Amino acid sequence: MSDAANRLAAPGSSVAAPAEHRRRSRVPLLTWVAALAVLGGGGSAWFVVQRGRADQSLSKHVSSAPLYIAHLEGFTVNLADPEETHFLRVTMDVGFDHLPDGASKEKVSAAMPVARIRDSILAVLTVCKAEPLLTSEGKSQLKKNLVDSLNKEVPELAVREVYFTEFLVQR
Question: For residues 12-51, b (16+ Cβ closer than 10 Å) or e, as one string?
Answer without folding.
Answer: eeeeeeeeeeeeeeeeeeeeeeeeeeeeeeeeeeeeeeee
